[in-house]
Amino acid sequence: MAEDLNWAVGGEAGDGIDSTGKIFAQALSRAGRHVFTSKDFASRIRGGYTAYKIRTSVEQVQSVVDRLDILVALTQRTIDENLDELHEGSAIIYDGERSWEAEIPDEMTAVDVPLKSLAEEAGGAIMRNIVALGAACEITGFDVEYLDEALEKRFGGKGSKIVENNKAAARAGQEYVQENYDLDHLGYNIETTDNDYVLLNGNEAIGMGAIAAGCRFYAGYPITPATSIMEYLTGRIEDYGGHVVQAEDELSAINMSLGAARAGARSMTATSGAGIDLMTETFGLVATSETPLVIADVQRSGPSTGMPTKQEQGDLNMALYGGHGEVPRFVVAPTSITECFWKTVEAFNLAEKYQTPVFLVSDLAMSVTEQTFPPEAFDMDEVEIDRGKLVDEDEVDEWLDAQGHFRAHAVTDDGVSPRAIPGTTDAAHMSTGLEHDELGRRTEAEDERVHQVDKRNRKVETARDDEDWDYREFGDPDADNLIISWGSNEGALVEALDYLEEDGIDVHVISVPYIHPRPDLTEEIEAADETIVVECNATGQFADVIEHDVLTRVKRINKYTGVRFKADELADDITEKLSEEVPA
Fold first, then answer.
1. Domains of the chain by range and CATH?
2. What is the pLDDT of residues 332-387, one digit of tens each?
3. Which secondary-structure segment (H or E) carries 363?
4. Got the DSSP string for 463-503?
5. DSSP 519-531
6. DSSP 8-state assignment for residue 393
7. Beta bridge partners of 215
C-alpha cells in the first residue's frame, strides 16, 4: 500500500466542520497530492456529531481506512468516536482553554492549542478551525502557503480583509505549535508534487456531465443528499442557455422536467429515495409518452425519512420495478466519481436514442466524497452526443400516414419511433398517458394495445443487443474467488485487493455499472469457486438479481449501518465470508 496520511476534524453540526475539511482538501490538491474525503454528519443544522476525514497520498487513493494520524477535536465526543482509528503516534489537536477537559489516551500525542484565543487575536473567534489547520500544517510538515491559496478561493468573495485574517489565523496556529512543541518523533512530512488535479465530488460530476451532455433544463426540490446537483447547475447551466427551476415538490419537479423534454430540451431531475417515492406516479407517463428523461436518485438510508445523511443502497428495487404497470427503462449506476460524469453523459444519450426514462442511481457516499483526478479524466473532446431518431422537416414525410398525420408512436422493428420537436413542420401530433395508437390517439383496441406494449418493450431488447453493457474488472481474472459489486463500493474493493494479496488471497473483482440491462455473469460465476456480492443494504437486492439471472446461490456481504465500506474492513469481511458455507 502507498504511504498516506489520514486527517480528520470533528465537532458539532454548525462548527464549520465541512468548510474546514474542504479548505484542507483543496490545499492538499493544490500541492499536487491525491485526496479522498469522507463525511459523517447529523441530520440537523446545529448539534450532533459531525466529522470530515481526508486521506491523502502522492498516489491515487480510492477509499477511507480504519486509521487516523491527525485529529482536530473540537469536542470530547470527537475523540471518543475515533478511538478505534487512532494509534500510537496519532496527534490530537484540541483547545485546552475550552470548558471541556480532553481525555486523551497516553499513547497519543496531545497538542493543546488555544484555538479560540489565537483566532480572536487574528480577527475573530470564528476562525478557530483555521488556527487548527495551521497547527496541522506544522505537525505534518505541510507548507502553509498551500493553505493560503485555498483560503483565497474560499473567502475571496468576502473581501481581502477576511482573506488576510484567515491567513493570519493559520500562521498563528502554525507558529504556536512550532514554538511550544517538538514533534519530530511523529515523523510526518507531507510530500508535495507539481501535479495538477481536479477536486470534485460525485454530485458535482453528475452536474458537470449533464452540462457536457447538453442538458438545458433541470427541475428539482431540495433533498439530502441530491440537492448539491441543483446547486452545481445553478449559475453554470445558464451560461449555456439552460435553466434551473426549484419546484414546490418532487412531483412538480419531474413533471416540469417531463414538459421540458417534450419540448425538445435535454432535461433531468434529481432526488433521493423519499423523493423517488413521490415521483413514481410519473414514471409510467414518461415511458408511455416515450419521452427521453434522466432521473437521478442519490440514495440514502430509508425507508421513510430514515437517516437522511447516512449511506445506503436500498433503492435498487425501486429503480428496477417502481411504477404501476410495466415500465420499460434503463438503470445505470456509476461506480466512481469519474463514472458519475461519463455515465451521466451516457444516460442522456440512452434516453434520447430509445425515448425511455433512464434512472441514474448514485448514493450518499459518492455524492459527498471529494476526490482528486487528473484533468484528462474529464476530457470534453471525448463527449459524444446522440439524439437518436430526431427528425427534421426533410424527414417527416416518411413517417406520415395516408392522411398526412405524423406517426409519433409508429410501430418499428427496433421499437423506437421517430421523434419530432413541437413546431416541426407537418409533424404535429398528440401524446397521452392513455394507451394510444401510432398517431397518439386514445385506444382500447386489443391489437393496438399489444402492438404498442410490444413496441415499447422492444426498445430495451434492441438496446440489449446494440449497446455495450459491460462491467469493470480488477484483480486477477483467473482467481477462484469472485467479488461482485455495484455503485460506490468499487473504490473500497479495489484497495481491499492489496490487503487480501498480503494475506495470500487472490480475488477477481467485477464492478457493475449497468443494472438494467446488465451484463450476463453466468460464465464468470460458474468459473469461480466462490462468489460474493457486496452492497450497502440489508436484503442483498443486487445479489437477488444476480441469483435470478444465473440460478445459483451466492454469498453476500451487506452493510447497512449508514456508513460506507472501508478498504481494510472490507478485506476482513471478504476473508471471513470465504470461509463460510454457501447458503442453501
1. 4-196 (3.40.920.10), 201-382 (3.40.50.970), 396-466 (no CATH), 472-579 (3.40.50.920)
2. 999 999 999 999 999 999 999 999 999 999 999 999 999 999 999 999 999 999 99
3. strand 357-363
4. HHHHS----EEEE-TT-SEEEEEEGGGHHHHHHHHHHHHHT
5. ---HHHHHH-SEE
6. T
7. 266
